[in-house]
Amino acid sequence: MGVYERQQREKKILEAAIQLFGEKGLHVSTMADVARKTRISKGLIYFYYKSKEDLYLALTKKGMDELKELFNKSFGKPKEKTGLEIMTTLVEGYLSFAREKAVFHDALLDFLSVLDSYQVQREKVSPLILESPYFTKLLQSHHDLAKLGIKAISMGIQDGSIRPDLHAESAFYTLWSMMIGYTKVTGSVSLEPGDIKINAESWKNGFLKLFFEILKGSNTPFKSQPVQGKLF
Hints:
- By secondary structure, the protein is mostly helical.
- It has two domains: 1-49, Homeodomain-like (Arc Repressor Mutant, subunit A, Orthogonal Bundle); 52-185, Tetracycline Repressor, domain 2, CATH 1.10.357.
- It has helices spanning 3-24, 31-38, 42-48, 52-73, 83-100, 102-120, 127-130, 133-141, 144-159, 168-185, 200-216.
- The protein is globular, with a radius of gyration of 21 Å.
- The protein starts with a helix and ends in a 16-residue tail after the last helix.
């Protein structure tokens, strides 16, 4: 089998997995489902991906690569944007990515949970995960996102668009945790009881206000858009 043919078959399997995991979730989906969807035998599926975990980590790596590309594009041309403008583009892009490519975003958050176990209680991590070559690749590349965010904040501190008293690394990881938390809680906002006066739009404006006040300081207020619609 030629290299091109193998690559095309791997791509076909991965595309089917992305759709299945997105529709049914990791735990419900099976390799037999992938085989039926691709019309490739289950045995041959295992030739390309050694386990469902291996396939899911391949999906995770693809999501990581796409998010890294989005972060890189946030910088634009050299010296075209200030650090604050880069961070504005970056956070808007991330929130869109989380909403529009939920299967990738969920996989990335699952990987972060695995990393916690890997650091603290490695024996609790499934051997099927540890044996995957994609797990090794993710270990080597997951910090690339943080490096890009730290670079943007450092640029902003240097060009004066971001407050000078910030520690770039600490600031990015604080904001990164805010971004992840925002995406995880967004869906529950509309289910809050009537005495909690918030809806998705007003909360997004409040989130962005706090986000950019951390970067700029409270002396330069963030201007939110007028909130319309019923408060839940």
